[in-house]
Design a protein that fits this description.
By secondary structure, this protein is an alpha+beta fold. Helix content is 15%, strand content 38%.
Length: 254
């Protein structure tokens, strides 16, 4: 049975611990889209692969050529030796709002036929138009437990206030009505940053799509503006600045 698309109403929280403490939280909404349900998911002010007040475009993810996302994700899993993702793949992401989008991170959750989480593909973007994927799996390829920590080395530039070194720790949880994701960044001196995304999920309907747009009509502009506003605050606090290295040659890191 195909899972239903959802709207996730929640918040993003971010906290830096060193060399000065800096924290903020903002309300947001995201889409949770089963890739097998994309073709029939358009509702009211929300559309798939065509313009609307809210839209999800295949060309914003994966190969960026507008082709179907499910074969691409399954292809990444296969090339990386991931087994057991024979169930639904769900994309959690910001949609386009009024034709514009910026996604710091989009998450593909890969499940087995029994609904257990088996792999997670995190598609990370920076403000320079570059992207990189972090592929996460539990040891031995078993099902990933709720809030189980998964690790990946940091190889991609995201912020000028963090060096491309150290590693990330990820954990995820959720059910039919709520979702939680946490990403911690550790450098040589320990935990430096925490980012969480959490909220409650509602079925994607014409009504919830309209609610999302009316509540967050400038979501994309807000995401971009807040990134630069928080960067200015860090600069004023004299947090050290690192130049941007070249992105990694490979598109996916495990």
């Amino acid at each position: 049975m195909t899972a239903a698309a959802q709207v996730l109403f929640g918040r993003v929280y971010h906290c830096r611990f060193r060399p000065v403490r800096h924290a903020f939280a903002y309300p947001v909404f995201l889409l949770r889209m089963p890739l097998s349900a994309m073709d029939g998911a358009s509702r009211g002010v929300f559309s798939v692969d065509r313009w609307n007040l809210l839209a999800l475009r295949s060309a914003d993810h994966g190969p960026r050529d507008g082709s179907a996302l499910e074969p691409w994700v399954r292809g990444v899993f296969a090339r990386e030796g991931i087994r057991g993702v024979d169930g639904e793949i769900v994309l959690e992401t910001f949609p386009r709002v009024l034709g514009f989008v910026f996604n710091p991170i989009s998450i593909f959750y890969g499940h087995d036929r029994d609904g257990r989480l088996r792999a997670v593909l995190c598609e990370v973007s920076n403000t320079f138009g570059e992207r990189h994927n972090y592929l996460l799996q539990a040891p031995g390829g078993r099902a990933i437990g709720s809030r189980e920590w998964l690790e990946a080395g940091k190889v991609f530039h995201v912020s000028p206030f963090c060096e491309v070194a150290g590693h990330y720790r990820f954990r995820f949880s959720g059910d039919a009505s709520s979702r939680f994701a946490q990403i911690d960044y550790h450098d040589a001196d320990g935990k430096l940053l925490i980012t969480t995304i959490d909220g409650h999920a509602e079925p994607l309907t014409a009504g919830t799509a309209a609610k999302a747009f009316l509540t967050f009509p400038f979501l994309t502009a807000g995401v971009v503006a807040r990134i630069h506003w928080q960067a200015l605050k860090l600069w004023l606090k004299r947090v050290p600045w690192f130049s941007k290295p070249e992105p990694p040659i490979q598109e996916t890191t495990r």
